[in-house]
């Protein structure tokens, strides 16, 4: 598939209906993102069951729009109460909060909104070209290269996990083990099903991913709420809603462009995601901005940098998913779950078999930008009110939505059981210093890793040389090793400094 | 569970047990086809071995660790664990309730109990009962009527 064909798919996915779904997705995304503790991936997980009833194209557009909306929505509580809605908005809390305290709440939210739109839109356009290129490359890869690529994706997650590398490795292995449950793809024989017929097709993707993602984020808040019983939401007081002007935005364009490029580069790397992009862009923004020394006092560039970067990560994170079948972030892993749910298998053949899916995702992202500007600007006041929902109502609603979401998969009560078990395990893992997000990526990549390893071994008649003779495979394996060594060295350095 | 290193010791032991069970289960899988070098058991066995080795590393490191950090108190308390078990227990009861009483009634009860556990007062029933009823009815209408999801009916509705 060429880039031109990809643009063709994007335009052909356009319809009035698609605009409406994107509007709905953006609105939900801003709402979800604005709720403290609800990340973009959780906002997407909560809406996932709704998408079963939709056409696949509309479903992917909706999810892409939620992703874009949530990355902006998270900056609302970051700016107004200093609590980032999603981890990626943490740097925004520094200067955004300060600008709000200086009496320019509307401007702080405006910089975040315009920066988010800029990042997703221009990041989306670059993402299309990047996808066109990677789709071509993906068709040239063989089984051994795919195995190496999946390993590289997983190693990136480990090297970025804080602290103990062994725990990062274990988290991934647990995910792959979970993914190995069900019928073996080569022989059709059931494996590790413990005699349960419901596990014959494997552990259901959606409740498992939602469980691990939600557990880490939600259970901690619920447990804290049970102990503290704090019913009052933060008081916002009277706000000034004067919005940012075009001239004011253009004054930050240099930072915006650099941050967008950083967002794309970080977003494409499997497992890196918007949080890392935001922090890197904030630091880089400090270096290139003329107000660099004023960072921390509420300067526009310091809000623009992380917000452009985390929104630029959205199109970038779906590129490896749509070309290689490897999600670039947890939210992209939810998108993978949605594609599987609609009978598609992300990977090199997706562009040939379901080109409309690629068009839908990117149209969703590109359309979401003007929608975000309209919805975010017109309803600035209602979104601000979202941050004031009392936490005991909020946590209960999310818990109920998680359960009904699993029931709506029409896999019966067993799906809720998977949700509960995965939530429990995910929370325990987090308490013990393991990384549930790495487990999710291990789980969704399990099939890709094992199938390609076995296929490569089958084709080479059992010779391990197949991983050395192919240059792309060798380069990827070396990159994987470098990534692990780099992670080990970083961990050692951090320990010495501590 | 007071010291941080105890968490690593317990996780290490549990993971070694898990790895061993997984390895044993893999050995009971049928033999590989003659044409396929790895077979259905090869990769899982490899994973199990790596898991056991890494868990052993964590276990031994934790036992030998004499640092102040490892012997300091954990961030979470037994009360946190009790609260976690309470949340999980409630969700299990909720699932059992869904099968017995049906989705709407059990969601209403579950939401009401959650509100009270998280701080709302029974003495102000409007703040508990009305939001619980709204959640149950809205979820039902949204998923059952709009999305045609198969929500269990149970003995009641």
Please give a handful of descriptors for the protein shown.
heterodimer, A: 498 residues, 23 helices, 1% strand, B: 2 domains, flat
Q: Explain this structure to me?
A:
- The complex is a heterodimer of chains A (498) and B (157).
- In chain A, a hairpin with a 6-residue loop joins strand 1 (182-183) and strand 2 (190-191).
- Chain A contains 23 helices and 2 strands.
- The mean pLDDT of chain A is 85.
- Chain A has helices spanning 3-12, 16-34, 40-47, 56-73, 75-80, 90-101, 105-140, 143-160, 165-179, 205-228, 246-250, 253-268, 273-288, 300-324, 330-341, 350-353, 355-378, 380-386, 391-407, 413-431, 436-459, 466-469, 471-497; strands at residues 182-183, 190-191.
- Helix content of chain A is 73%, strand content 1%.
- Chain B is mainly α and 157 residues long.
- At the A-B interface, helix 9, helix 10, helix 19, helix 20 and helix 21 of A face helix 1, helix 2, helix 3, helix 4 and helix 5 of B.
Largest interface comes to: A-B, 64 and 61 residues
Output the radius of gyration of chain B. 24 Å
Order of helices and strands of chain B: HHHHH
Would you count the extended β strands of chain B for me? Answer: 0
Which spans of chain B of ≥5 residues are poorly predicted at pLDDT below 50?
Answer: none
The domain tally of chain B reads 2
Overall geometry of chain B comes to flat
Q: Terminal Cα separation of chain A, in Å?
A: 50 Å
Strand order of the largest sheet of chain A: 1-2
Classify the beta-strand content of chain B into a percent band.
under 5%
**Which ranges of chain A are low-confidence, i.e. pLDDT below 50, for 5 or more consecutive residues?**
none
Helix content of chain B: over 70%
% residues in beta strands of chain A = under 5%
List the secondary-structure elements of chain A in sequence, H or E. HHHHHHHHHEEHHHHHHHHHHHHHH
Per DSSP, the total helix count of chain B is: 5
Number of strands of chain A: 2
The helix-and-strand class of chain B reads: mainly alpha
Give the helix tally of chain A.
23
């Amino acid at each position: 598939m060429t880039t031109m064909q990809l643009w063709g798919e994007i335009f052909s996915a356009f319809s009035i209906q698609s605009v409406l779904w994107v509007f709905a997705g953006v609105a939900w995304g801003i709402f979800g993102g604005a709720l403290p503790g609800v990340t973009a991936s959780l906002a997407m997980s909560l809406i996932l069951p709704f998408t079963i009833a939709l056409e696949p194209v509309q479903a992917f557009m909706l999810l892409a729009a939620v992703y874009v909306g949530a990355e902006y929505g998270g900056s609302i509580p970051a700016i107004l109460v200093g609590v980032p809605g999603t981890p990626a908005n943490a740097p925004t809390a520094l200067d955004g909060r300060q600008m709000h305290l200086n009496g320019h709440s509307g401007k702080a939210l405006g910089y975040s909104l315009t920066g988010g739109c800029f990042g997703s839109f221009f990041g989306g356009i670059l993402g299309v070209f990047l996808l066109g290129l990677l789709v071509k490359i993906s068709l040239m890869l063989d089984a051994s290269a795919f195995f190496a690529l999946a390993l590289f994706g997983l190693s990136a997650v480990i090297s970025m996990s804080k602290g103990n590398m062994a725990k990062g490795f274990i988290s991934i292995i647990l995910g792959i083990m979970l993914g190995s449950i069900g019928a073996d793809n080569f022989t059709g024989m059931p494996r590790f099903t413990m005699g349960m017929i419901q596990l014959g097709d494997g552990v259901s993707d959606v409740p498992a991913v939602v469980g691990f993602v939600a557990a880490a984020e939600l259970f901690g808040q619920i447990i804290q709420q049970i102990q503290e019983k704090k019913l009052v939401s933060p008081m916002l007081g009277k706000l000034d809603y004067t919005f940012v002007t075009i001239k004011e935005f253009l004054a930050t364009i240099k930072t915006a462009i650099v941050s967008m490029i950083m967002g794309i580069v970080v977003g494409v790397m499997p497992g890196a995601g918007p949080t890392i992009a935001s922090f890197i862009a904030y630091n880089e923004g400090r270096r290139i901005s003329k107000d660099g020394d004023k960072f921390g006092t509420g300067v526009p560039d310091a809000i623009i940098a992380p917000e452009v970067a985390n929104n630029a990560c959205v199109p970038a994170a779906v590129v490896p998913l749509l070309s290689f079948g490897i999600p670039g972030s947890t939210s992209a892993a939810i998108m993978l779950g949605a594609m599987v749910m609609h009978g598609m298998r992300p990977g090199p053949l997706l562009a040939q078999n379901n080109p409309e899916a690629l068009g839908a995702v990117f149209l969703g992202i590109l359309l979401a930008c003007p929608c975000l500007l309209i919805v975010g600007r017109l309803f600035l006041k209602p979104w601000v009110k979202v941050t004031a929902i009392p936490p005991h109502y909020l946590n209960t609603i999310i818990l109920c939505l998680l359960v009904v979401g699993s029931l709506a998969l029409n896999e019966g009560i067993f799906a809720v059981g998977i949700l509960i078990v995965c939530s429990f395990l995910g929370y325990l893992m987090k308490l013990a210093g393991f990384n549930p997000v790495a487990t999710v990526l291990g789980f969704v990549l399990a099939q890709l890793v094992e199938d390609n390893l076995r296929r490569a071994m089958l084709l080479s008649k059992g010779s391990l040389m197949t991983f050395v003779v192919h240059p792309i495979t060798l380069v990827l394996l070396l990159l994987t090793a470098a990534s692990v060594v780099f992670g080990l060295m970083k961990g050692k350095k951090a320990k010495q400094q501590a | 569970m007071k010291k941080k290193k105890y968490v690593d010791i317990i996780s290490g032991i549990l993971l070694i047990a898990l790895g061993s069970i997984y390895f044993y289960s893999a050995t009971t899988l049928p033999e590989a086809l003659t044409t396929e070098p790895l077979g259905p058991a090869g990769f899982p066995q490899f994973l199990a071995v790596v898991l056991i080795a890494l868990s052993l590393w964590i276990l031994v490191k934790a036992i030998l660790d004499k640092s102040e950090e490892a012997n300091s108190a954990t961030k979470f308390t037994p009360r946190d664990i009790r609260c976690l078990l309470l949340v999980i227990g409630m969700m299990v009861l909720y699932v059992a309730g869904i099968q017995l009483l049906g989705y709407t009634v059990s969601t209403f009860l579950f939401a009401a109990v959650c509100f009270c556990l998280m701080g709302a007062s029974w003495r102000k029933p409007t703040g508990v009962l009305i939001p619980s009823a709204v959640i149950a009815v809205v979820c039902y209408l949204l998923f059952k009527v709009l999305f045609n999801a198969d929500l269990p009916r149970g003995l009641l509705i």
